[in-house]
Amino acid sequence: MVKKKGGAPKAQPTTRKTSGDRPGQKNRRPTAAAGKPKGTASKADEPKRDGTRLNKFIANSGVCSRREADTYIASGLVTVNNKVVNTMGYLVKPGDEVKFDGRRLQQDPPAYILLNKPKAVASTTSESKGLTVMDLIANATRARVAPVGRLGRNATGLFLFTNDDRLMQKLHKKGLPRLFHVELDKNLKNEDLLKIREGLSIEGKTVVVEEISYVVNAAKKEVGLKIKNMGSSIIRDLFDHLGYQVVKVDCVTLAHLTKKDLPRGRYRHLNDDEISLFSML
Predict the structure, then answer these.
(1) 153 lies in a domain?
(2) Is 36 a residue whose pLDDT tops 60?
(3) For the segment 46-67, what is each residue's pLDDT rounded down to a tens digit?
């Protein structure tokens, strides 16, 4: 339910068994491969625990892009704990010392930024799209953050940025609950509202809507729509399919986050409590 001109509504790890040595055979350490450069890390040297991919670590330090980092890694210009690492997908653990061309790199701390996006701003990292959301948060952090999901250029409302890869992967896999205030060109028929609530099939794909209802104290052309889809065109596709044109789209809540004390065009950093609540999604 969305109110008119108001706030938004209310392993255990498993141990993998390995086969033991044959009777009478002593344990032997693996020997280095012939011709392998001294001090070069192999797959056996890779951390077995979760970590940050090496190319992501390098990109976050501001040296270059991830694609360029892959080239430098393959060229042997990157070391981890004084060992050359040229294995793609190598994971850097907390406390590891990473150097690029002899210079020590620092990992950016996790950053979480919430923007109240204004109209006529593209939700992309491309510099060829005119004014973008990245321009609006340019002074928010030195970390290389990325937008989570998309909003149409003329859509407004809450928009999240982070450099937390784990959170990004989780949200793109499970979806991010977003509540939109949508205004149409004409009143939404009750029968069409029920069709959306039950789930519509568009181009062979079923669009699942968490909630939909008319906005309180407003014409029936204004509805509240809660959806987990991360795309920017899904709302317009949904109503176009039923013969309606979308006039306005405003994201009023994003998971547990609201627009309270966040004017249009401004951003803020999330606090620890807000960040921890993402673990419940």
Answers:
(1) yes
(2) no
(3) 444 568 889 988 887 777 888 8
Q: What CATH number did the domain enclosing 113 receive?
A: 3.30.70.580
- List pLDDT tens digits, range 156-178: 999 999 988 788 889 988 999 99
Residues 185 and 235 in one domain: yes
Contact 271, 114 (CB under 8 A): no
Structural domain for 115, as ranges: 108-175+258-281
Q: What is the 3-state secondary structure (H, E, C) of 184-211?
A: ECCCCCHHHHHHHHHCEEECCEEECCCE
In this structure, is residue 59 part of a structural domain? yes
Contact 255, 177 (CB under 8 A): yes
The predicted structure's pLDDT at residue 255: 95
Residues contacting 209, CB < 8 A, separation 6+: 196, 197, 199, 225, 226, 227, 238
Q: What's the pLDDT score for residue 281?
A: 85
Q: Does the residue 17 lie in any domain?
A: no
